[in-house]
User: Fold these one by one.
Assistant:
Number 1:
Amino acid sequence: MADLSATIREALMRVGTSTLTGLLNRRGLKNMYLQDVWPIRPGMPRMVGIAFTMRFIPTREDKVGSRGNVQQRAMEECPPGHVLVVDARGDARAASAGDLYIGRLAARGCAGIVTDGGLRDSEGVLKTGLPAYHRRPSSPPSPIVHQPYDLGLPIACGGVAVYPGDIVVGDCDGVVVIPPDIVDEIAAEAVASTLYDEFAEGEVAKGRSLVGLFPVANDEAKRDFEIWKKSR
Amino acid sequence: MADLSATIREALMRVGTSTLTGLLNRRGLKNMYLQDVWPIRPGMPRMVGIAFTMRFIPTREDKVGSRGNVQQRAMEECPPGHVLVVDARGDARAASAGDLYIGRLAARGCAGIVTDGGLRDSEGVLKTGLPAYHRRPSSPPSPIVHQPYDLGLPIACGGVAVYPGDIVVGDCDGVVVIPPDIVDEIAAEAVASTLYDEFAEGEVAKGRSLVGLFPVANDEAKRDFEIWKKSR
Amino acid sequence: MADLSATIREALMRVGTSTLTGLLNRRGLKNMYLQDVWPIRPGMPRMVGIAFTMRFIPTREDKVGSRGNVQQRAMEECPPGHVLVVDARGDARAASAGDLYIGRLAARGCAGIVTDGGLRDSEGVLKTGLPAYHRRPSSPPSPIVHQPYDLGLPIACGGVAVYPGDIVVGDCDGVVVIPPDIVDEIAAEAVASTLYDEFAEGEVAKGRSLVGLFPVANDEAKRDFEIWKKSR
Amino acid sequence: MADLSATIREALMRVGTSTLTGLLNRRGLKNMYLQDVWPIRPGMPRMVGIAFTMRFIPTREDKVGSRGNVQQRAMEECPPGHVLVVDARGDARAASAGDLYIGRLAARGCAGIVTDGGLRDSEGVLKTGLPAYHRRPSSPPSPIVHQPYDLGLPIACGGVAVYPGDIVVGDCDGVVVIPPDIVDEIAAEAVASTLYDEFAEGEVAKGRSLVGLFPVANDEAKRDFEIWKKSR
Amino acid sequence: MADLSATIREALMRVGTSTLTGLLNRRGLKNMYLQDVWPIRPGMPRMVGIAFTMRFIPTREDKVGSRGNVQQRAMEECPPGHVLVVDARGDARAASAGDLYIGRLAARGCAGIVTDGGLRDSEGVLKTGLPAYHRRPSSPPSPIVHQPYDLGLPIACGGVAVYPGDIVVGDCDGVVVIPPDIVDEIAAEAVASTLYDEFAEGEVAKGRSLVGLFPVANDEAKRDFEIWKKSR
Amino acid sequence: MADLSATIREALMRVGTSTLTGLLNRRGLKNMYLQDVWPIRPGMPRMVGIAFTMRFIPTREDKVGSRGNVQQRAMEECPPGHVLVVDARGDARAASAGDLYIGRLAARGCAGIVTDGGLRDSEGVLKTGLPAYHRRPSSPPSPIVHQPYDLGLPIACGGVAVYPGDIVVGDCDGVVVIPPDIVDEIAAEAVASTLYDEFAEGEVAKGRSLVGLFPVANDEAKRDFEIWKKSR
């Protein structure tokens, strides 16, 4: 089972999805941000965890009940520290999950839930405290549209391939996926980059021009950054 | 004219649209949730009322003014306790109504307004205190896109057939429609179901497994629920 | 360079985009409201400024870097009191700008930023205090999708033609564009119209019928309005 | 009942929808072309007729059969020389009609069928010989999505308001609607305009510049046109 | 492995997808028609076969080549008499397959290919003679957007759940899926229903009313049908 | 002015857009195929030419006539051998051009017209013989939606950046753009690749497996290809 050290987890908690997509892009990973997937409320806490996947296919009247309760199993089997990522084919006409299911994930120490479909009972979901991301609220029960089919396969979510074991990070702007084999270096670079951004934000607020400061730092900016770091 | 007892109204005020769509689905009513129709602000009060309908058709330059002010009539004629439901063909390029019209509904004791188009002056609408649901804000005046044509016909709203006299319920996740002839039993079941959910949420928060608890309760869960109800 | 007096600016700060689209419509200007362009947060301050434009075209791998940093230049050259309006072809798969760029606009005294694509680092953008409008949040860096190509040309934004020098006004419902040659009269009429709306809202709240009051005022309403104005 | 003389009918059979939308636009009628509504096959004969309307609303499981067979009535009651125009809310997930229904329209001397949803049995429809326009083919039977509700009301079709009695014209590019009170003059102008286009096409094919020829004719072009007309 | 007798195959070759969706709907199967999936050319031969499935997920730059050539394997392993059904998530920005791959399916005696994405080299595909269905043509090579991931799983295609072993039928209006356990009775009913339609079409063409004939046959129509059958 | 030798032109006339997108992709050019842009009829001749661009912005009632007739100028100034590529923002609600304009392009020796909006008078356009590509037919005159603004700028068309001087190639599957500095080598490779495809198609039709043949050729396949070439 994939793992994520407390250090990396904390580091990723302090960096934004914008910083991460920028660093992933530099490595040629251009499609790691889930399109049209949002926090259920703007003020929700950030999310860091390891991907555990569930795949929905469309409901078919002759197959109802043929798979047991895969959805319930997902809530019972998603390991602590993991994020349940759901492939709902971008279809939010019926819910991907609701507050009781998500409450169970929370109680079991999971790190969040992400679907490119909808979530129901958003008020109840909010009360569970678990970071939850979806396309939009959706009250109808999932079997109207979805049949949960399997767990643990690579899936599509928000137009992005999500593999079990991927690192999943969410903030108020959405959700990004990081391959586990580069997460350590990405986290380290992200912390450094976030620090530079903090410095640059201060400079910009004081009226400094972007030229030589951002997006590319010249020697002077690098020197000032070193001084700023020491003086913090 | 359709009616809704205070008891049923209060009961529906305390249950969520997710609970209602679940119960409607069990009766084979699969398409009662208005798709892509949202409260104008997340914190808005819940809504319960009886449907009174207005139908827009597209504006045509040679027909302007040919119908008198159907829109104004809607605001003056929608009965107290009713929700004005507007068929805007899902088109939010121009508004379905604004704060003065909606203020009049509020002053006349109506229960809310729902459109699958847009509302304008959302800040003013919020001040009226009337629950208001739409697809998205839209500032342009309605005649740019819409001709209000008739009142009191069955319409489409958010992909759902809404008949005058239907019961309309809204919460932070959206709007659901209930046929009036089953509203009493749906309300009773919804209250019971909401109580069970409250029990189950507590159990889940304490770490209980979903197996045998939700979505299907086994004998043990039923027994524990009875005990919990008595101890409240 | 276009100019906007402090008086007009303050007047426009106090009127809503609904009022403005109504007045523009009466002059035959039917398409001045940017469709699907929203404040990054509901509570954001209103925006009034003069349009300064940037045009994106799609990225092409063989053209990367061929234009210098047009995006940085936009942030350095957008004049104080101006709104940077970005033609992102409605494509929010990658960001149009982020918090450092927008912080520079704020520091330089610009009036806002508007894109029909996405903005990244929305929390940081919020901290800059600059009114910012977009289609939806978007974390990926802009070069994945966009090549900034030129500044100062008429563009499309949210389905509306925006010419440099146009007056741009934003509130919680979205963004509207006003031709500079009629902004003085539009502002004056908007203030008057807003005052009448305030009067009418009070009347409606007291239970007065819309007939003769709104949308068309009869003699009685006009008289009452005059009395109300004196008594304020 | 609206009427259309054989002369006007024949005139409209010889002019294209492009010519008609141009002439309607000059009278301020800007939205008379049905968007996304196409002939079922490119080679289909042109269509001219008077609008007879049917309105679908979404299906609801508790209302099935509550309206008798409105759809069958439409096929039996649409008068000869008329076009059955269907408001399917742009929804082609299930059919608006099929070959037997359309065969009956053909047998009864109707002039065509138009829907902004889908038609089924397109091969069979083609065999009936009746001009038929839709968004796309759709095999599922209509009750899966649609409840036919009423006949003879103004409706929306392809984003255009269609009133019973309107003149409906279709060619290989789509369908246009003409108000009956101006159809005589529109038809006359369209014939004249089509003749000029024929002349101009010949000139353009011979290498003549568009300047002074099209879209605005100068005196020379007008003179040449007169000569050309005589020499035909 | 699922099987399909020559008799059933031939029966299904002679009935339309409209007839089949009607019969499936009567058994409560409401979502068996693939939405927005079309023959590559209108005149293409009909298709009957057994579903063999391939699932694409989105491409990811760090996973290229990690699955061997699943796509090539699909073409080599799809059994004779089977239809390769591809889950492309409705994404036609890059191709699902091209003429060489499809030529191999044809050479191996497969019955067709269906994707809810795009096909490339449509002229070459046409030359292979294999029935081919897609959303629209798409020239770019599949790896730009798609990673072929697995064969033989239930998938989504055109919004429909397709299980390996399902019977897949295509005509000029699109593609429908039939559960294998009811295909015999569906085929028999479809042939009978098609015969009645042929009779009814003739009657309608002769001017007979739909009342009592279609969609519901009365005793007279049943009697006439029996006579007609004998006289054929 | 960009140029294109007769040899390259003829080579490109004989290769498909699928072959070209494949070769461009190998050079890292992943977005050169115009999405949702189609030939006006399936049987239209192929197109090869050099890009000459026109940019539309949305119409605004206060700017009508402010640019002279840019559209007419486009038809008079697009050089022989060039393709007029139009940025219509993917908006086909009104036409980008019609048969007289396109007839003039044909008479002047231009190579084609491409828009991501619509074309009107498609029958007339077909008669001009000029290859013409669009999103869908659209009868309404362009000023209802579009203001032609400038010629000769890089534009977006079908989601692709098109620079003046780019090589534009169209077949029955759509349109692809080639940077002029690599067109010679792309053309040469495309001819070679097309020849191999022809060989491979023959082999596949004879029953040869794809393994070692396509998409990757092994030594045996290379040897057989050499023999086949000599025997042609």
Note: DSSP finds seven helices and 13 strands in chain D.
Number 2:
Amino acid sequence: MDIKLLKEINKNHLNCIVEVVALLVEVKVRTTKTEKQYADLIIQDTSKKMEVKYWEYEDNKQFFEGLGEATVVKIKGMVGEYQGQIQLTCKQIALLDSHEVRMADLIPTSDWGLDTLQKGLRYFYDKVEAPHLKSLLDQMIFTEEYYERFSTYPAARSVHHNFYHGLLQHVLEVLKFAYTVATTKKLTTRQQERLIVMCFLHDWAKIFEYKPLPTIGFTEEGTMLGHIFLGAHKSMNVMEEIEGFDHEDKLIILNGILGHHGKLEYGSPVLPKTVEAQILHHADCISGDIESILSFMTEQEESEETFTSKLWNMGTDYYKKGR
Amino acid sequence: MDIKLLKEINKNHLNCIVEVVALLVEVKVRTTKTEKQYADLIIQDTSKKMEVKYWEYEDNKQFFEGLGEATVVKIKGMVGEYQGQIQLTCKQIALLDSHEVRMADLIPTSDWGLDTLQKGLRYFYDKVEAPHLKSLLDQMIFTEEYYERFSTYPAARSVHHNFYHGLLQHVLEVLKFAYTVATTKKLTTRQQERLIVMCFLHDWAKIFEYKPLPTIGFTEEGTMLGHIFLGAHKSMNVMEEIEGFDHEDKLIILNGILGHHGKLEYGSPVLPKTVEAQILHHADCISGDIESILSFMTEQEESEETFTSKLWNMGTDYYKKGR
Amino acid sequence: MDIKLLKEINKNHLNCIVEVVALLVEVKVRTTKTEKQYADLIIQDTSKKMEVKYWEYEDNKQFFEGLGEATVVKIKGMVGEYQGQIQLTCKQIALLDSHEVRMADLIPTSDWGLDTLQKGLRYFYDKVEAPHLKSLLDQMIFTEEYYERFSTYPAARSVHHNFYHGLLQHVLEVLKFAYTVATTKKLTTRQQERLIVMCFLHDWAKIFEYKPLPTIGFTEEGTMLGHIFLGAHKSMNVMEEIEGFDHEDKLIILNGILGHHGKLEYGSPVLPKTVEAQILHHADCISGDIESILSFMTEQEESEETFTSKLWNMGTDYYKKGR
Amino acid sequence: MDIKLLKEINKNHLNCIVEVVALLVEVKVRTTKTEKQYADLIIQDTSKKMEVKYWEYEDNKQFFEGLGEATVVKIKGMVGEYQGQIQLTCKQIALLDSHEVRMADLIPTSDWGLDTLQKGLRYFYDKVEAPHLKSLLDQMIFTEEYYERFSTYPAARSVHHNFYHGLLQHVLEVLKFAYTVATTKKLTTRQQERLIVMCFLHDWAKIFEYKPLPTIGFTEEGTMLGHIFLGAHKSMNVMEEIEGFDHEDKLIILNGILGHHGKLEYGSPVLPKTVEAQILHHADCISGDIESILSFMTEQEESEETFTSKLWNMGTDYYKKGR
Amino acid sequence: MDIKLLKEINKNHLNCIVEVVALLVEVKVRTTKTEKQYADLIIQDTSKKMEVKYWEYEDNKQFFEGLGEATVVKIKGMVGEYQGQIQLTCKQIALLDSHEVRMADLIPTSDWGLDTLQKGLRYFYDKVEAPHLKSLLDQMIFTEEYYERFSTYPAARSVHHNFYHGLLQHVLEVLKFAYTVATTKKLTTRQQERLIVMCFLHDWAKIFEYKPLPTIGFTEEGTMLGHIFLGAHKSMNVMEEIEGFDHEDKLIILNGILGHHGKLEYGSPVLPKTVEAQILHHADCISGDIESILSFMTEQEESEETFTSKLWNMGTDYYKKGR
Amino acid sequence: MDIKLLKEINKNHLNCIVEVVALLVEVKVRTTKTEKQYADLIIQDTSKKMEVKYWEYEDNKQFFEGLGEATVVKIKGMVGEYQGQIQLTCKQIALLDSHEVRMADLIPTSDWGLDTLQKGLRYFYDKVEAPHLKSLLDQMIFTEEYYERFSTYPAARSVHHNFYHGLLQHVLEVLKFAYTVATTKKLTTRQQERLIVMCFLHDWAKIFEYKPLPTIGFTEEGTMLGHIFLGAHKSMNVMEEIEGFDHEDKLIILNGILGHHGKLEYGSPVLPKTVEAQILHHADCISGDIESILSFMTEQEESEETFTSKLWNMGTDYYKKGR
């Protein structure tokens, strides 16, 4: 049976065998009254979460040991129903290499489309003409070592852009907002190119601060050192290897990365000391705030209340009418 | 002698009679040792401040009584020098109706040009298609009663956009930034039109909060009630006279005006409760912050320091190299 | 059987039919094992909450559709007992117009008595002699359009004066405290009259910010615009229709309404700019704080602890001994 | 010549000898070109400050040694004029015992009149009937040891009630405000009596925290320990000597004294834990705030501005019209 | 059977009678279906908590009335098992005088050992040579009245040093840290001795602020007045009874006690005004912070996470690797 | 004449020629009435500031061009007096290489002595036994490239340790305080060694953040990037070049450097995440606070007041008696 999404499984499939590909996000081992162990699994894709019973757990313990926090599995199982909910009884379970599946089917993904995202990236990259700046972007982003991560990581753990390609979409938003300000306020070409580079790099180190999706969480390095330090550290090292990298550009770009949270109390160890750095900070804020409001309102669309509940990072509730 | 700007008067004119048009910004009455009163005047235009001696003060006291805080005068005077500074001895002084002079010659003025500003305004006005919103803009802005003020007032007393056409330029910047965000984040047409209206109106009441240029300062109404209240108050009254004004639009636009300072502690009595209101708040911030940095750096261009002094509203100094 | 309050129903009435008037505050529709729908109702008056079973729900669905959030009903029912609690089985249920009942029987009500409250109001009203101020009070309060609401609404959603006639009692407290300060500090008559007017009007717009009791909650207008703006807005419109309303009085009274929360971070868009406004702010604080402590201590009277739990708006616990 | 106030000395007295009684507030020793020492004195009374030349300084050095910070002197001198200002040349100078003069002539004094102040004190004292509370007041206030100080000290160094009898007037204001709240909110008699005692005692230790007028400043004890600790310390010692002093009253009154600044950040080591303590805190605030606004407005009455300058402790300027 | 610690009771004792000494920390009275009352007790020692059934409750009610919050009992009972947990059925229960048991067996206790603690105390006591300071310590600490409490009380209710001898250990840590700073920074002998005294006394009044262990909680006096006031109050009284107690030492030591929380918002009514007071404040902070981190990490040692959960008083999580 | 310190020059030298070595800290070019340029110089050493007239400025302009901010000069001049102050008239002026003078004669210097400081450094260095940690210290501190700077730079621009060898003394204080805490709290050897390394490195990058003494001020790099980032950046690079540098040690040491300001609002981009990092933060605070109080009190020793003026970074005044 050709099942693409978990939500496609319905009562018509009762007692049929189906095969699904999904994320295995929870394994709870339980004991029957006869002291036999079995497992309650939870699997999910973008469409739904579903419970799976796995009675052969005892025979297959070693499969579950050493599983990462969120793994892609292929499950063959019998469709059943329990308290009105569709649930599977697992017959076979196997790991899938994450390259065999489209991540976008399994976890929330940017709705801009990878193609649009990549075109946008190229559009701004092409605006940078100074060779040392171009070289900096080449080595930090458009290189085999980092590009895969940079173009798939999320930009936050929760609240905003916490989805596949999230970092990419966020960077692009920041670029668009910042560039509009830069041209409106007639910054020099040098300032504009520098600002573009700063937008590209400001959250770069989130690719080391977060664990790769579908896992959600910080790395040890991320918690102990943070993306602000890690990004400026790597950028400085790359700059120093580019021959003749302009000293003022170096200081300004590094200050921009260090200062992009805008205030010490938000984790920037220095304040933005240039107009470019201040624009970057504002563009970053807007991208985060607006996305978090929009995704929160989507989440709460179905409740009947006139206002959403309080969105914690914004400190207020939102009016749901009038759209 | 054909003098256009005060700075054109130099040592070559010593002992010549010149005629200048300038703002009279200070009148200090003094007494000679022989107990005769005379006046030390200060006049200014965009190029310079200059001292003027007026020995015939006693014969002409009534001229000075009842002068406003900053008046346009035509002065015929003899060029002299005192402690290395050019100074005038006034022979004749006369009021000039402010319509007889180009304000841009006398006070700092937006460098965008009125034409550009007006085209920008029209560009965004044309994007608003909903008749009730168009009607609101017509009655608040594009009406004889307010247009003159709206298009000439400053947007702040100091720090940013504190110049002729300053409000107009600020509103246009806010519109550009907000509109870029709105389209990037794919807001609905209804949201976009509402946002444009909110940008137009958010600082509208500054035309009552400030005294008209060249005077710089608050009106009594401005200090006691503030432009946030005054703008929402007037907007609500106009909305209620427009037949069938959509109730949700009304609440959202008024909340946007009331909430555009973004936080209670910045003087907004309510928080922004919609995504439009939040975008307006951010766009307003950026326009103010970036203009205040840029104009401050221009002011300090000539000092030899690597960094500016501390810009009080931003809480930091700025790096002057690299532009 | 003549039942006045729910708490009068006791085990002596078991299996009797009683008739009660109460607020219907919750309707939960449930399904029996035989798939028949019935309703679990909760009703309450000032004395008690009580559960009511309504087995005929399916036959009477349309009665429950379109019910407001808290409605007055007359119920005829059989007294039963379940797990030690008295409960009714509903035989008949009917809506009651809220005018047919004394609200004070159904919801918490000021213990000052309406008569006392109204005398107090009159006492201070009579102290205002300036015709334009008297006229302002006449049109804002002593008019058919608003008096009913003004004299019955609560002054807060929770914490203090959140009961029937709460706004009235709060206004009267504020008047008493403010007037004592004004006379002690020898304010001029003009200042005193203005202060009285400001006390009357400061929370006026709570009659639009809150839903009418017994419902507890904000209106859309209330959440989006707030009582501070709404009150000043309405007051300004009324003042402008009163011929020759003194301009200084207008600014001072409006500033007092706008500033009565005392600080920007508490939602006042401008600070109190006169001694009257500052007195109003303090009197408002005291009335709220003291009532919230007293009602909280009453609530916790029965616990055996020496101290109350922490009262969230005051940030501390209170000592219960020594009264 | 019968001079009562310094401001009475005018040009008509030029070259006459006058005798004045005033505070000597500054002594600057200077040297003439011939290396002879003389003194420039400044004296003041409630009406004016005046300069006095004292040429015989060298012959009279020991008079000036050991003078306190502000001493009452009788000066016989010749009236002169210097740069348009009346000034004296001292012929004789002598100390005056502070009991020989009416302090109210020399330093700013409460305009309530001592009689009114004392009647007020008595009025509230008489409301306290519980013997242990009466005894506490008797020993802390109505005793030879402290009464003189308590009835003449100021209540602050600047901003409010910083005048002769200032503490007395402040205590009376606090009593009036607090008592109005207590009766309006129907506190028990026990609570009311306790509240009266707390009002009497809350600032009691200012008589040890400040130096006696006309000196203005803190004692060492005052700076190191503060009136909050000193007052509670003394009160606790007195209570413990009163036989059978109620334990709850003791805790509540001491908590009231310790907590009367209302928040930890204002110097209270504990928060107000009773309704009486919270009333005391508010009444104390109002008395201070309102007096500081009123006296500041009086000070600035003569400037032509519509608004005062900013009053630092209140954080804002005040509107001067409309009184 | 010789049971020392609750954790020694295991399945081997099933159905045996054991005798244990433990703290009785909870008594819940319940009713059987046959309406007979029995009690569910909870007892604990440092090793474990355990449930105890007491069926003869009705016959022995008076035993439980008037029990304090945590009492030492000797229980003879039958070992049973319920849902996999060892539990006792009580046969006999009796109070034990707290002097009959070693508290360290029943509640968490400093792991420094009483001997080490006392030697440390003596070490610093011996450094104080000035007789009036020695006398102050003698009367406040080394006196029968207080020594027992001072050497057994905890230093906090939770977070840090909340164990038997906790205050003693905390005082010793503060002494060590402060003394290192004092000698490194070359303070005078007089300053060093004073600092030692201040360290000894700063938290002295915790012996009145807290209830004695094993009870955990504040006394009424503690909540209403706090240890900062109580400690300075007592110290001042003792100082005033010591003949010729140096006045400067008195002010400095009292300021040190009052100021040891370092900031007004942390409950100090005055700021530290000497270098000794500032050192005391820092040493107190470190002792508290470091102990709270260490004990929190010990608590969370067994979880598998790389980081602890968030430690509320420090506002962050801690890295558990690398020790 | 053998002059060592400027303060040795007195009235006995009037009209003599002296030779002095001092810092040239100010050059003001002035013009005589005859339009000739001359220079007013200010020179200083640790003992005094002194004015110097240099009449031959016009002949020697090129000498002054290109002088750094504070240069060591040898001046031969005539001793004169002006308005009671000793002043020189310069006859000859010459640059001195800073290696020809003992800096300690010219600028304030640690009073611990270089020998003591170096011994202290060695003492703690020897406690580190882990080879990778030792290697880190060797490359960061005990290397020709950095040791000179590390051992002479100040630790702050003002307030504390702003003198020659200031950084060295500060690091040593931090080591002493931190080590006392670590041993008292029984940290493991591994933790102790890591803590020592963190103390050594925490302010390391001040040698790039500040300009070298006698100049006082930030470098561009210092203002734009800050010593927190620069220090962690360099340390991370060095660690990565040390083969097999323990990963946990790396994270913990870098977190310690990044977190040593203790709170985000003080410029740390991450919080201290280990007990070592928290100890470092406290030890750093104490060293800075106590030194700033002590040096401030020394500065104000001579004023007659009982209290110092307010020390801005501590927010209070200090009691000067009792030492």
Note: Chain F touches chain B at residues 220, 223-224 (CB under 8 Å).
